[in-house]
Amino acid sequence: MNIQSRKETKDAGSQTMLTHYGDESFYGAVVPPVFMNTLFSFESYEAFQRSQFQDEAFYYSRVSNPTPQIAEKKLAALEKGEAAKLFASGMAAISSTLLHCLRQGDHVVCSYPIYNGTYQLLQTLLIKFGITADYVDFRQLDQVRAAIKPNTKLLYCEGYSTFFMDVFDIPAVVEIAKQHKLLTIMDNTCATPATMRPIEWGIDIVIHSASKYLSGHSDVTAGVVISTQSWIDGLANNDAILLGASLAPLDAWLLTRGLKTFGVRMKQHAESGRQIAALLCKHPQVARVNLPLLREHEQYELAVSQFSDITGLFSFELHGGADAVRRLMNSLRLFQIGVSWGGFESLIYSPGLSIHPEQTTRTEWETRLERTIRMSIGLEDVEDLMDDLQRGLDEL
């Protein structure tokens, strides 16, 4: 088979890298093929034996497959990491990472509010294996320090906090972790590497739900973990194989297809997001817009020092509370109600519908849940989205 390696583009601009890096050309095909096979055969006993000592040998697709490998190379380069490992979902990436890092008796300091799946994993599953967690507002560095125990193993956080989009001082938290010799793990799904790369700020391990902005077409369920080559090798060669949550080749192929347009999609999400955020800030029915890169936001200075731009994901709060949220969500025509985000379509959702109440009880977020709407601004014509939202707000 005539296989020609593409020109090395790992260090090119992000969109150029995603277009070319990691691909191979088969008979001149500009789109890499999808290897749907479950296994790879060998010509001899000796050939199979030699394959066990080769880094890029393929013999069974639960272990490795060329199609996911293409996406993994692109994702590692996009986050400026050394290597990446794909999983069948964002939750598979989170659970595999935590199971790889933690042992019985270990302790986690976790930011909150956190993605509900992560919270449930720590509270209901890992606790059965003697792994405990405390939840801390990472904006309060004294609270982070105070939560660290002799058995603490890692700090787990999100670039933007779930639903309310709060940010924290990343270098300061990284320094705390280094002082206590702790691992740092960040879920960067909301911010994406288009606006912030945690590894460049000293974070050890980065996780994404690749179902969101990375894929961008609402047709892939996937997760990815990015870190050093040695750490990813340990994860891939042990926990990932034994847990069996590998990403299927066709899904990996679709993810690679989505990555080809990641840069241009994120620019449009951000541009539309800015216009819609400006509309919300001016409307009398809106009590607050949760977007730290707005000049009106109290965390603006910190946010602009760490994030290069917004995405299309943020939330806002209504004066009318839960009833106003219900009426607005039911009245919008272009914004669909859905739990995910980051696709081509515009979505709305309220944290009051799903976030575990124990996360926010007796906190500042408790009274804000039911009056909050999260928006994922899609790729529709922004004028149409603004007309839909303006009409809905005016009718409240």
Global structural class:
alpha/beta
* Terminal-residue CA separation: 64 Å
**How many DSSP E strands?**
14
At the first level of CATH, the class of the largest domain is Alpha Beta
Provide a count of the helices: 14
Query: If you compute it from the alpha carbons, what radius of gyration comes out, rounded to the nearest whole angstrom?
Result: 22 Å
Helix content: 25-40%
Summarize this structure as a short list of keywords or feature phrases.
14 strands, Aspartate Aminotransferase, domain 1, alpha/beta, Aspartate Aminotransferase, domain 2, globular, 16% strand, disordered N terminus, 2 domains, 396 residues, five-stranded mixed sheet, seven-stranded mixed sheet
Structure, explained:
There is one protein chain. By secondary structure, the chain is an alpha/beta fold. It has 2 domains: 13-259, Aspartate Aminotransferase, domain 2 (3-Layer(aba) Sandwich), CATH 3.40.640.10; 262-394, Aspartate Aminotransferase, domain 1, CATH 3.90.1150. The protein is 37% helix and 16% strand. It contains 14 helices and 14 strands. The chain has helices spanning 14-20, 45-51, 66-78, 90-101, 116-125, 141-147, 170-179, 229-243, 249-259, 262-282, 300-306, 321-331, 357-360, 382-394; strands at 3-5, 24-26, 83-87, 107-111, 132-136, 152-158, 183-187, 205-209, 223-227, 286-290, 313-318, 336-337, 347-349, 372-376. It has a 7-stranded mixed sheet, sandwiched between helices. Helix 3 (66-78) runs parallel beside helix 9, helix 4 (90-101) crosses helix 8 and helix 10 (262-282) runs parallel beside helix 14. The longest helix is centred in the last third of the chain and has 21 residues, at 262-282. It is globular, with a radius of gyration of 22 Å. Residues 1-5 have low confidence and may be disordered.
